[in-house]
Amino acid sequence: MSETAKTAPITGRVLEIQRMSTEDGPGIRTTVFMKGCPLHCSWCHNPESISHSPQVQWIASRCIGCRMCEHICPRQALTIGDGGEIIISRDLCRGCGTCVEACPTTALELLGRMWTVDELLSELLKDLSYFKKSKGGITLSGGECTMQPEFVIALLRELRERGIHTALDTCGLCRTEVLLEILPYTDLVLYDLKEIDPEKHILFTGSSNEKIISNLHVTAEYIREHMFPGELWIRTPVIPGATDRDDNIRGIGECIAALPEKSVARWELCAFNNLCGDKYTRLGKKWEFAQTPLLTTEQMEHLTYIAQQSGVDPSIVFFTGSPQVSGTAHSGNESPQPRTSGCR
Ligand code: SF4
Ligand code: SF4
Q1: Candidate of 51, 71, 75 to mutate for ligand 1, largest count of ligand atoms within 8 Å of Cβ
Q2: CATH of 3-53+112-325 given 2.102.10.10, 3.40.50.150, 2.30.29.30, 3.20.20.70
Q3: Most buried one in 31, 102, 165, 290, CB count within 10 A?
Q4: What is the atom index within ligand 2 of the atom nearest the CA of 67?
Q5: Measured distance between the N- and C-terminal CA atoms of the chain, rounded to whole angstroms
Q6: How remote is the CA of residue 65 from the centroid of ligand 2, in Å?
Q7: What are residue 188's DSSP bridge partners?
Q8: How far is residue 140's CA from residue 56's CA, in Å, rounded to a whole number?
């Protein structure tokens, strides 16, 4: 092995660093969204996080129609439509960023930048004072951060050495060995459990839930043995026409109730929101939930009641999100929407 290869820094592909988050663990947090996910949830609220590869998005409201990007793509992946819209052939685009550099108004954006651990660490340490004041910390989310284990472990280790609270937000679909390597550097695990029926799980996400459930047991057992009670939160996205069934919520509750006692401190039922429609548009994709109405407060209260009757400690069940703003959420405006971790 060459000297260069031996000392090559560990790098990871990061989608975004989002500051001042209050929903991804205790206190005020900075959430790092990694790029790449093994699941393909049909309702995904972060479609730009699914592919591990860099992707270009076009933000129409920033485009002044200058055509500086026209003909610049070395792969002829970028064309301009009759209405002035930028069309990117996803099959041809390799995310080289040439068109992004040519655009004078940031209407073209490259999603997914490589960071070394040291670079990201020094960026995150800028927020140290508010972590300390609020008892917050860093949450690693995605995408699915366990897909980049070497980078994630190295980063978490550095954060822990500095006494910073760390949270891992995971969909649970990863090799168990990877999970067990990451857990020693994690103070809190936010674990998605979306659908209890294995067939429906495949239908909604493209993968079985078998590994996810077995990894949940491994996580809960690890927490019982090595950590403190309450360091595992479960999050369930409540999606109209998909996961919002009584039998699903009851089944997930029974699954949680079978975990070691007091290992789960919180079970969140996360109400569907439709704020991410523009993200699909920018990636040139259609979203099958674009016209789906929000759930009502009554529906969320009913499912919360089902959850509380499922065998778990009722005091750990909460619903989150804003179903009561039905009819106002999808305005069609193109201002950037915040990413949501978990419940994706
Ligand atoms: S990122 Fe590169 S390959 Fe993709 S459209 Fe722009 S110039 Fe072409
Ligand atoms: S270079 Fe940017 S602003 Fe100009 S047409 Fe292309 S996307 Fe629009």
Answers
A1: 75
A2: 3.20.20.70
A3: 31
A4: 5
A5: 41
A6: 5
A7: 167
A8: 23
